[in-house]
Design a protein that fits this description.
Number of strands of chain A: 12
Helix content of chain B: under 10%
Strand content of chain B: over 45%
Distance between the termini of chain B: 33 Å
Radius of gyration of chain B: 13 Å
Number of helices of chain B: 1
Largest interface: A-B, 27 and 28 residues
Number of helices of chain A: 0
Strand content of chain A: over 45%
Largest sheet of chain B: 6 strands, mixed
Shape of chain A: globular
Oligomer: heterodimer
Radius of gyration of chain A: 14 Å
Order of helices and strands of chain B: EEEEEEEEHEE
Helix content of chain A: under 10%
Order of helices and strands of chain A: EEEEEEEEEEEE
Chain lengths: 115, 115
């Protein structure tokens, strides 16, 4: 079935550094791909998504490109801020028992940005 | 409502007691999901409600777990005879439609501690 694999964290960067968080997927066909972010003490929020191959999702300075050749959806940001410190989850739909789809999530990557 | 509301935000219970966790989804969202997030772990899918259809219970870890959704809106997750391994953050999410198109909106979660 569909699954995602994320790089292990924590990732520790200085402010204004370049960020890459790797996500690779295994899927049948070309499902939508998502990045979610979880700030300390909060629930998960949708950060960005891409609905088809070669699409680029972007939001709040973050970008991710749906690359079918490498089955990847890496998250990038050119200049991180302390406020970006959070846990980031890659996700894609999987078929559950009833035939409908729910999202399956990677294990999460903790980002710590130091001033 | 404006967002997905979960209550209580924190719950401490004694081993063997039953607990009920509540989720109030965004008005008009037909799909509702429950996930469990254990310390340092990713998100574990538990159950999925779509409109008035029978729920998908394929993710429930044991028969001590059950959930219902009344009137296509509010949902309650019940854990009977709680065990220490049930300690986790329980997240509820709702979606306007198919997860692979819309993604989810999450609540802030209920942190359950079984002592």
């Amino acid at each position: 079935g569909n699954s995602v694999t994320q790089m292990e964290g924590p990732v520790t960067l200085s402010e204004e550094a370049f960020l890459t968080i790797n996500c690779t997927y295994t899927a049948t066909g070309y499902p939508s791909l998502f990045w979610y972010v979880q700030y300390p003490g909060e629930g998960l929020q949708l950060l960005l998504k891409a609905t088809k191959a070669d699409d680029k999702g972007s939001n709040k300075g973050f970008e991710a490109t749906y690359r079918k050749e490498t089955t990847s959806f890496h998250l990038e940001k050119g200049s991180v801020q302390v406020s970006d410190s959070a846990v980031y989850f890659c996700a894609l739909p999987v078929r559950v028992d009833t035939g409908r789809r729910a999202l399956t999530f990677g294990s999460g990557t903790r980002l710590q940005v130091q001033p | 409502g404006a967002g997905v509301s979960q209550s209580p935000s924190n719950k401490v219970t004694e081993k063997g007691k039953d607990v009920e966790l509540r989720c109030d989804p965004i008005s008009g969202h037909t799909a509702l999901y429950w996930y469990r997030q254990s310390l340092g772990q990713g998100l574990e899918f538990l159950i999925y409600f779509q409109g008035n259809s029978a729920p998908d219970k394929s993710g429930l870890p044991s028969d001590r777990f059950s959930a219902e959704r009344t009137g296509g809106s509010v949902s309650t997750l019940t854990i009977q005879r709680t065990q220490q391994e049930d300690s986790a953050v329980y997240l509820c999410a709702s979606s306007l439609g198919a997860a692979d198109l819309y993604g989810y909106t999450f609540g802030s979660g209920t942190r359950l501690t079984v002592v």
